[in-house]
Design a protein that fits this description.
Elements (H helix, E strand, L loop, with lengths): L1 E4 L12 E5 L3 E6 L9 H7 L4 E4 L6 E3 H12 L4 E3 L7 E5 L3 E5 L1 H9 L3 E5 L4 E3 L4 E7 L3 E3 H14 L3 E4 L6 E6 L1 H4 L7 H11 L4 E7 L3 H13 L4 E5 L10 H7 L3 E5 L10 E5 L2 E6 L2 H4 L4 H10 L6 H6 L24
Parallel strand pairs: 14-15, 14-16, 16-19
Antiparallel strand pairs: 1-4, 2-3, 5-12, 6-7, 7-11, 8-10, 8-13, 9-11, 17-18, 18-19
Helix pairs in contact: 2-4, 3-4, 7-8
Bound molecules: ligand LQZAQKY5 and molybdate ion.
Enzyme class: transferase
Catalytic activity: adenylyl-molybdopterin + molybdate = Mo-molybdopterin + AMP + H(+)
Pfam families: MoCF_biosynth
Length: 341
């Protein structure tokens, strides 16, 4: 702390509140701790009886907390992320449009490893709406050594934007319902309405829909037909487990699709299949997707619509946070389900 004459304090940072009292009218801080003194403040300060004030020794090597927070926000924000003006030293990062939030978790950890620097975020890979808060950043002291902020900026450079929002586009879907019991009319198809309703939330139209028996050849042929006719994503239900009549994975394999995974460490969703045929995603959805409100489908679909090609390694990492607690009142995404690393 340094005592300086108010006339010499322009550009310097106040290190205590300065109170104004007008009897019966007002009592409160006229100037707040952390305020940068301006030319116009001088007469006001003199009127308040302040000829000297205490300021932080904020030389060339130091940055005001507002400036520091803005610099971290600017360096860490990628496409689809805007940020607010500082408020009491804190800058909020905000979604500029609806989309899939992507966070470079490793980069965020490195930023927080820098002493006195804070970047606090939501979870990655979740859908955010326009205007949603994504993260908050600030530094702990009122002024901070410039080198720390330069280091934070270097981390952002090395790791790419730490936060971005990816736009999701709707895909035209070819839906294949398998199962002899449905095909022969022994039971009513209750799976397709669930899938159609979920897809409609993302604006994805179901262009084609077939109900097929448990026959590998027919499944293979229909996948190819749908793609040939313009389907941008194939969804197949039924026949995903290990019973003799569960032939869907075989049908997908025979189409020539590259299987990313058959099986996923997500409950519900263990019997999930993901494959790509000519870059078209082919999803085999186990019956749990029909029964449970939230499943692996809710974790994978947004990523596909955001244009990501999901690799097996990413699916295996989903085991951490992959257990749905099946709460009576589902609060997803405000729960631990799908909060993988
Ligand atoms: N022997 C084993 N059985 C099951 C296992 C296992 O590991 N070994 N895993 C269980 C898990 S976990 C799941 S999830 C399901 C996966 O089932 P499938 O996706 O193969 O579904 P299906 O066996 O074809 O059907 C299960 C059940 O749901 C009814 N169903 C299917 N499609 C429809 C439809 N369109 N409309 C109405 N009802 C439908 C079907 O009739 C069966 O009753 O497997 C577990 N079993
Ligand atoms: O394998 Mo199932 O977990 O209920 O999809």
């Amino acid at each position: 702390m340094l005592k300086v004459k108010v006339e010499e304090a322009v550009g310097m940072v106040l290190c205590h509140d300065i109170t104004r009292i007008a009897p019966g009218e007002f009592k409160g801080p006229a100037f707040k701790k952390g305020h940068i003194v301006t030319e116009e403040d001088i007469p006001e300060l003199l009127k308040l009886g302040k000829e000297h004030i205490f300021i932080w020794e904020c030389g060339e090597d130091f940055l005001h907390e507002d400036v520091a927070a803005l610099r971290i926000a600017r360096a860490g924000s990628g496409q689809g992320v805007s940020f607010t003006e500082p408020n009491e030293g804190k800058v909020n990062l905000i979604a500029a449009f609806r989309g899939l939030l992507k966070i470079n978790v490793e980069g965020v950890c490195l930023i927080n490893d820098i002493e006195e620097v804070v970047l606090s975020t939501r979870h990655t890979n979740h859908i955010v709406d326009k205007g949603d808060i994504l993260a908050g950043t600030r530094v702990i002291p009122l002024v901070i050594n410039k080198e720390k902020i330069e280091l934070a900026e270097q981390v952002c450079k090395d790791y790419g934007p730490l936060l971005e929002v990816k736009e999701m586009r709707s895909l035209r879907v070819g839906l294949i319902t398998t199962g002899n019991e449905v095909f022969h009319g022994r039971i009513e198809d209750k799976f397709s309405p669930v899938i159609k309703e979920k897809l409609s939330r993302y604006g994805c139209p179901v262009l084609f829909h077939s109900v097929l028996p448990d026959e590998t050849g027919q499944i293979t042929e229909r996948i190819r037909d749908f793609i040939g006719n313009g389907a941008e994503m194939i969804i197949i239900t039924g026949g995903m487990s290990v019973d003799p009549d569960d032939v869907t994975p075989g049908g997908v394999r025979a189409s020539g699709a590259e299987i990313v995974t058959y099986g996923a460490p997500i409950l519900p969703g263990a019997m999930f299949l993901l494959a790509y045929l000519d870059n078209i995603p082919v999803l085999g959805l186990p019956a749990c997707v029909m029964y449970f409100k939230t499943t692996i489908f809710d974790l994978i679909l947004p990523r596909i619509l955001a244009g990501e090609r999901v690799a097996r390694k990413e699916i295996t990492r989903m085991g951490y946070g992959g257990l749905c607690l099946r709460c009576q009142d589902c609060m997803f995404p405000f729960c631990s389900f799908g909060k993988s690393l």
